[in-house]
UniProtKB/TrEMBL annotation, chains A, B, C, D:
It comes from Tengunoibacter tsumagoiensis. GO terms for biological process: negative regulation of DNA-templated transcription. It holds the Pfam family TetR_N. The lineage of its organism: Bacteria, Bacillati, Chloroflexota, Ktedonobacteria, Ktedonobacterales. SUPFAM superfamilies: Homeodomain-like, Tetracyclin repressor-like, C-terminal domain. Residues 39-58 bind DNA. Keywords: DNA-binding, Transcription, Transcription regulation. Residues 16-76 form the HTH tetR-type domain. GO terms for molecular function: DNA-binding transcription factor activity; transcription cis-regulatory region binding. The keyword DNA-binding applies. This is HTH tetR-type domain-containing protein. InterPro entries: DNA-bd_HTH_TetR-type_CS (IPR023772), Homeodomain-like_sf (IPR009057), HTH-type_TetR-like_transc_reg (IPR050109), HTH_TetR (IPR001647), Tet_transcr_reg_TetR-rel_C_sf (IPR036271). Coiled coil: none annotated.
DNA sequence: TATGAATGAGGATTCATTCAT
DNA sequence: TATGAATGAATCCTCATTCAT
C-alpha cells in the first residue's frame, strides 16, 4: 500500500517534471518563433517525446500557451513580492520591480510576456480561453496600483496624476521590447538602463 | 487622344482607389484578427471582390501586410512633421506627437503599428521582406532623437540622460497598447491621457 | 463597295497574320515549357497583345494547341510530299523523309510534334478535342505505308515484315527525342545521323 | 524486447507496403492522366487514405513522381540484368531486352517510363530534382552500350556504325508509344512484335 | 502511459476564361 | 475589335488533433 502510494507520488513527480520541461521548451520555441510558427511537433521533438504525449499534459496548443503564461505570470508575481519585500519607500519598490524585470534570469520571460501579450494573435486566444490569465494580470496591476497609492499617501508621488495612468505608464516602461536594442546591440548594462528608466519615470526628462 | 489619356488617368485612379480600399480593409481585419487568423479570402470578401483580385494588387499576403505598414508609417511620418511644425519648444513638439498618436483618426493605426510590430510573427516577416520598413522606422527614431537633442541643447531636457534611452522610453509611452483599456473601458478622453503621459514623461511622478 | 471589300480582305489578311504570329509564338513557348507551364498570359505578352485578344482567335488554350499541331502536321505533310517528289526508289524516299525531319528549319517542329504528342497530357487533350489531328496523322501514316508497300512490291523491301510494324519502327526512328543529345551535346551533324539511321533501318546492324 | 523488435519490423513492413501501394496507384493515375491532371487528392482517394497521409511518405508531389520513376528504372535495371543473363550472343541479349520491355508485367511500366520521360513537363521536373534518375538512366544506356560493343568486338555487329547512334536507335525502338496501337487495337501479340522489331534492328528491311 | 500514423479542415496561390469598357 | 481587370475553381501543402496499438 505504502509502496503503491509512494509510486503514485513518484509518478506524479515525474509527470510534474515532464510537464515543467514541456512548458520550458515550449516557452523557448514560442519566444523564438511566435505562436503560429511554433508547431506541436517541434515542441515534442525538442523535449524528446512524441507529439501525442504533449496532449496528455495539455488538451490543446492554446491551453499549452495559456499554461506557459499562467506559470510565467505566477513566477513574476512571486518574484515581484520578493523584490519589493526588502524595500521601504514606494519608489524603491518600483525601481526594484524594474530591476527584477530587466535583470537576471527573468528578463527573458518578461520579454516573452510582453512580446506575446501584445500580439493580436495572443489577445484573441486569451480573450477566448484565458480567463485565469486576466485575473493574474489584474492582481499584478493591483499590486502596482497599491504601491503607487502608498506613494501618493506618503506624499512621495504626485497625487494629481490618476493612478491608472501611472500604472499603464509604468507597465509600458517595463516592457523590454522597446529597450531590447539598447541592451543587445548597444551593450547597455541592464542596471544602467533600469537606473535611467526609473529616473525618467520618477523625475521626468525636464530640468527643473 | 485626350480621352484616352483621361481614361488612363481614370482607370489609374480607380485602381488606386481599390488598392486603398484593400489596404484599409486588410488593416482592419489584421487589427482584429492578427496576421495568421486573417485569410486573403476574408479580406477579399469584406472588400467585396474576389480572392484573385487581391493578388492583382499585391503579389502575396506578406507583401500586402508590408504595404499596409509602409503606408501607415509613411502617413505617420507625414502627420509627425505636420504635428510638430507649429510647435517651438522640444517638449511641445513631443506632446504634439503624443497627441497625434492618441487622438483622432490615427489612433487606430498607431494601435496597429505598435500592436503588430511587437508580435514575434511580424518580426519574422519583416526580417525577411521588410527592408523598406526598417528604413522608415529608422527615420522616425531619428526625428525623435533630433527633437530630444534640441531640447538638451536648449537646456530644456536633462542632458545627463542618454538620448537613446529617452527615445525608447518615449516610444514605449507612445504605444497605445497599454493605455487602450483606459480609453475604451474607462472612457478616459485621449487628450486627458496625453496630458498626463507627457506630464509623467517630462516631470516624473515624484513630488519635488 | 470595292473599297469595303478590299478593306475586308485587308483586315482579313491582318487577322491571318496575327493568328500566324500567335501560333508561332505559342509553339515556341510550348516547346520550351510544355503545356501546363505555358500560360496564355505569357503567350499574349510575347506576341505583344492582350490576353483577351488571343481568345478572339482561339476559343481556348486547348484549341490553340490543337491549331498549332494541325498547322505543323499540315506543313509536315506538305514538306513530306516535296521531299519525296524528286526521289524514285522507296528507300530514297524514306531517307529523304528522315533528312527532312532532322535537317533544316523543320527539325524544331519535328521535335515539338514528337515531344508533345508523346506526353500523356497532350494525349488526353487530343483524345477529347483533336479529331482533326487524328485524320492528318492517319494521312501521314498512310503515305509512309504506301511508300513501304511500293518498296515491297518492287522487291526492294522484305515483304515478310508487316507494313504496320515497319511504319511504327520508322516513325520511332524519326522522333528526334532520343537522338537529341547526339546532335546538341556530341555535335553530330544531322546528315551524318540521318545516314546512319537509314542504314540501320534498311540494313540492320548485323554484319552479313 | 523481441516483441518490440518484431513490432518494429511489422510496422516498418506495413509502412513499406503502404508506400508501395501509393507508388503503384500514383503510377496508374499518372499513366492515365499525366502529371498535371493528377492531383494528390485523387491519388489518396484511390489508395483509400487521406491526402495528408501521402505526405507522410513523400514530401511533395514532385518527390512522389521522382520516387515512382526511380523505382521503375531500378526494377527495369534489375529485370534487364535478369533478361540478358541467360543469353550468350549480343543480339540475343538485345532481343531479350525488347522482349522484357514489351512483354509481361513490365510493359505498362515501360510505357510510363518512356511516355513521361518524353514529356516536356517531366523534363523540367527532373532537370531540377531528378539527379538520381539521370544516373540510373546513364547506367542503362551504358549497359546497352556495352552489349553493342561486345557484339562489335565479336564480329556480330557492324563496327562502322557509331555505338551512340546504335544505342539511341535501339532505345527508340524500345519505346512502346509508337507500337501501342498495334498491340491494343490490332491485337498483335507482343512477342510477334518483338520478333519483327529485332529483325528490323538487326537485319534492316531491305532484301539483300 | 506513450506513441506516431492518420486525418482533414483550412489557406495561399495560380490561371484559364469572361466581359464591361 | 482590343483590352486587361475580375473571377473563382482547383490544387498543393501544413499542422492541430485523434486514436489504435
Amino acid at each position: 500500500m505504502a509502496t503503491t502510494h509512494l509510486q503514485q507520488t513518484l509518478k506524479e513527480k515525474q509527470r510534474q517534471q515532464r510537464e515543467d520541461l514541456i512548458l520550458k521548451v515550449a516557452e523557448e520555441v514560442l519566444l523564438e518563433k511566435g505562436y503560429y510558427e511554433t508547431s506541436m511537433e517541434e515542441i515534442a521533438t525538442r523535449v524528446g517525446i512524441a507529439k501525442g504525449t504533449v496532449y496528455l499534459h495539455f488538451p490543446s496548443k492554446e491551453d499549452l500557451v495559456i499554461a506557459i503564461f499562467a506559470r510565467d505570470m505566477q513566477t513574476f508575481l512571486q518574484g515581484f513580492d520578493t523584490a519589493i519585500a526588502s524595500q521601504t519607500s514606494a519608489s524603491e519598490k518600483l525601481t526594484a520591480l524594474l530591476s527584477f524585470a530587466y535583470t537576471g534570469i527573468f528578463s527573458n520571460r518578461t520579454q516573452l510576456l510582453s512580446s506575446i501579450l501584445n500580439s493580436v494573435d495572443m489577445r484573441r486566444i486569451f480573450a477566448e480561453k484565458g480567463e485565469c490569465l486576466r485575473s493574474i494580470w489584474q492582481a499584478l496591476a493591483e499590486k502596482i496600483s497599491v504601491i503607487l497609492e502608498e506613494g501618493k499617501a506618503s506624499g512621495e508621488f504626485d497625487a494629481s496624476i490618476p493612478t491608472g495612468i501611472m500604472v499603464s505608464s509604468f507597465v509600458s516602461l517595463l516592457s523590454p521590447q522597446k529597450f531590447e536594442r539598447l541592451i543587445t546591440v548597444e551593450q547597455l548594462p541592464p542596471d544602467v538602463l533600469v537606473y535611467y528608466i526609473s529616473r525618467i519615470f520618477f523625475k521626468g526628462i525636464v530640468i527643473k
